[in-house]
Design a protein that fits this description.
The protein has about 90 residues and is mainly α. The chain has one domain. The protein is built from two helices and no strands. The protein is elongated and about 65 Å long.
Length: about 90
């Protein structure tokens, strides 16, 4: 039952970092939106951070994921061309 839902190229450190960045920024943006709607509002500079900078970080994290997938796929194809094994599996 260890079926992976994503392509194998998605399981690399760069894509994982992008996913963590996106998830953390999403949670922070969501909590700031809830805070802004429950209380009177945010300070002007806090609004700039909440509505411009944090969503940009979310988008950046989402863009890092396919970059990591591309680099992993390229690394694997170069390894096959060189005759090296794809990766080492220890059972």
């Amino acid at each position: 039952m260890n079926k992976k839902r994503l392509p194998s190229s998605a399981y690399n450190p760069i894509s994982m970092v992008g996913a963590v960045i996106a998830i953390v920024n999403f949670v922070i943006v969501l909590s700031v939106l809830v805070y802004d709607s429950v209380f009177d509002g945010l300070a002007p500079y806090a609004g700039i951070i909440a509505y411009i900078i944090l969503p940009a970080g979310l988008v950046m994290g989402l863009l890092i994921i396919p970059v990591g997938m591309f680099l992993e796929r390229r690394r694997r194809s170069r390894a096959v061309e060189d005759g090296r094994p794809r990766s080492i599996y220890i059972d």
